[in-house]
Amino acid sequence: MKHVFTFDPDRCCACSACMIACTDQNDINLKAGEKCFRKTYDTEVAFKEGGIYCAYLSTACMHCEDAPCIAACPVGCISKDADTGFTIYDNTNCVGCKSCAMACPFGAPRYNTEDGKMVKCDGCYIRIKNGMKPACVRACSFGALDCLTEEEYRNSGSDKACNVLIDQANLRKKEALGRWR
Amino acid sequence: MNELEKKIKAKIPGEDTGIEIKRSLCAICSPGCHCGLDCYVKDGQLLKVEGTLEHPYNRGKLCTKGAANRNYIYREDRIRTPLKRVGPRGEGKFEPISWDEAYGIIAEKLAAVKEKYSPHSVAFFSGYCKWYRPILHRFCYTFGSVNFGTDDSTCFKSMDIANSLTTGAPGGPNIPNTNTFLGWNYGGYYSNHLSVGPVRALKERGGKVIIIDVRYSPAAKNFADIFLQIRPGTDGALALGMGKLIIDNGWADMDYIEKHTYGFDEYKELVQNYPLDKVCEITGLNPDDVFEATKLYATNGPACTNFSASALTHRVNGLQTHRAIICLGALTGNFDRPGGNVPSFASYIHKRGGFTTREMEFREEKRPFDQLRIGETRFPTWDEYCDEFQAMDLLRQIEEGRPYPVKAIVGFGMNAKMFPETDKLVKAFDKLDFFVDADMFMTYTAKYADIVLPSCSSLERGEMKAYEGGYLAFTKPAIPPLYESKSDVDMLCELARVMDLDDDLLKAGYEACCDWMIEGNGVTVADLKASDLPVKIQTAKPVVPGAYLEKGCRTPTGKIEFYSKAIAAYDPKYGLNPLPDYVDPLFDENDPETKEKYPFHMIAGIRIPNTIHSRVHEVPWLRSLRPDPLCEINQDDAKNLGINDGDPVEVSSPYGTVRLKAMITAKLQPGVLAMAHGYTEANANVLVGRDHLDPYSGYPGFKSLRCSIRKY
């Protein structure tokens, strides 16, 4: 069953439990300079007319339907998982050319410091196949991140999929609560 | 990679992968929490953690810190063996010794202090984690010392005393049944993650939320119908002003006041001094906002109020501020009714399970009475309502030796950075004959100890724990103790045997002690250990709103006291006020010279997602989220001072200086600075004066003090 990540910025506080869970799940070696596949943002956006919007965000690979990284890889490391629809990889043949990272509009693929090979968020597709949620979703205490089947997503009527997140952060005008002096 | 290898890499539990889920609990933060933990274990190694879905307390949720448990327990600086100091105090030079040798030295040194001075010259002190406290407390009393102290000297207890003085009982917000949530100092997201769900549910069913905070927090953004961004430390004035509005507008519940309260007339007279314009001048708030918030709270009931453990009481006017806020619940009849603040009492180590244990009797039967505790007679309400010495007087007593010398400290997780003027305290350790500290890591404080004992984590031990909803648990180790580390309670019981204390129960060990404490509840430790999840206790009773008032409050008058008879009874020399009047949070730092030199209002101790006090600053995963200690400063102030985001800044008070980096924000108001506490390299508490204390509770004004800031 095809899956999608959803994100609700009105539930997020950038606590970064998702990042810690990603680090735990994927044995990210921070000490060696590696970074986990998810990143949070606690950003203050100033309105022209005064006041701020506090953007709390969490992003990772968007698992694009037409993922440009797949075509960009000269050795065919990246593919779509037939069940989940997530963008997965097998970096056995990776030559470390970084074409995938350059093709990705979100900068999702990263490179292992030790072997120079590409790694990225695989949506925890093996966990999903075993009836579990992705690690980052499981760690979100506030329901900001979720991972749904395509059917669940359609039925939920959600307009908060990850791929509209950037729009929301930059374009959606929101009245700041309280009075700003 | 074949399918099995993929599953092993993805850490999927199962017979094929050899990965097993073992149940434990996270003990990184306060025992008011302690979420159930699923530990993914293979061959005795922890592979990852998740919250336990079936756990009645956290239902699968973990916070940022809890999610980092693997990195926490496998920190490289875990203490591996008992250690004996070989260099000067604080340098950190130690040599490994055996457990037998460590116990021998401790027994000999403590006996020597007892012999030369008195048993009271040995102070027993507990920091985090608090789970072993009943055992340490009894150990202290059996040894013969009156001096058992903990971080309660600066955490939670001041609020608890204010509750005891006013309503006689702690009263948590009953959010599931409320219409209006007065989120006084409510952060939630970074400090009490399990509280966020109920507030969201309230919003989704059309309830209202008022947030009062010095920072524009995620809770203010995501939940507030009305947000009052108040000047630090002026909450008491706001509460009194709200009280006046409630009375003047006829929103007070006069039947309730008549039936259940004492001292209303005196309170009514007091709040006449807090008209709206004056309150807004003090608090910096907009009068319309204050009026609308008060009206919403008073007329859209039932309404409940958030009481945070220490955010408000870390001011020198803190205890009375909390009292003033409780009085609003009394005025509107929201104390002890559904959807209001409903009293309940702790079953075991702060957790309210709805059943009783003999936790208090367990220590009381050994209590000595032949000496004053450290700090006794200095803070009358503390003395009356707390079973511990007020540690804010420890530094003075070590330095002065009056009324008697303190010559040894038995610390468990002791944290000197919790104390104002930390630098002076660690210097005073030189006056001690002996200092032993047990901890998981070689902390800043442990480096000053003569003997350091290696504690294990909650994942490596079994412990008894009560939970809300009538539950009791006894965990089993998920992995064996690392290196030669031990459970804190095993150290104490073994030491009781080595020292041959007159205490057969302690010598019988932790499980025997637990069985003694839970006797009468129809379960034994063996029963609890048979379950991987908390066990429902048959003696547990649900809290029935209204039942407490019906029985009469645990106060001198049996009523909710606007006017505290207990405070009125103290010697007038203390100058304490039976009414919850407001005083300036900087009243002791307002002389013109100090005001000019230190124009900023510092909040030295804010919540950020990746820290809890000093507990996890050295956990690499968590540290990576915010690598540098930061001082938050309003964007306009920063501009005026020529400070850019990330600039190195020096923050000073009359007591000390810290160097850290600037974080520029619009979430704080001009004139206010804020920083997280507990960093060794930028310890907020060196900025706090040792006598900047609440005269009622002895609590330091961590969250309201004068500072200056400059780029360096």
What do you see in this structure?
- The complex is a heterodimer of chains A (about 180) and B (about 700).
- With about 180 residues, chain A is of the alpha+beta class.
- Chain A folds into two domains: about 1-60 and about 125-180, Alpha-Beta Plaits; about 65-120, Alpha-Beta Plaits, CATH 3.30.70.20.
- Chain A contains seven helices and eight strands, in the order βαββαββαββααβαα.
- Chain A has a two-stranded antiparallel ribbon. Chain A has a two-stranded antiparallel ribbon with strand order 2-3. A two-stranded antiparallel ribbon of chain A has the order 4-5.
- Chain B has about 700 residues and is of the alpha/beta class.
- In chain B, strands 5-4-17-16-15-6-7 form a seven-stranded mixed beta sheet, covered by helices on one side. A six-stranded mixed β-barrel of chain B has the order 22-26-23-25-24-27. In chain B, strands 11-10-9-13 form a four-stranded parallel beta sheet, with helices on both faces.
- In chain B, α6 (about 155-165) packs across α14 (about 320-330).
- Chain B is globular and about 70 Å long.
- The mean pLDDT of chain B is about 95.
- Chains A and B meet through α1, β3 and α5 of A and α1, β3, α7, α8 and β11 of B.
CATH fold-level topology of the largest domain in chain A = Alpha-Beta Plaits
- SSE order of chain A: EHEEHEEHEEHHEHH
Integer-rounded radius of gyration of chain A: 17 Å
Runs of chain B in which pLDDT lies below 50 for 5 or more consecutive residues are none
CATH architectural arrangement of the largest domain in chain B: 3-Layer(aba) Sandwich
- Number of DSSP-assigned strands of chain B: 27
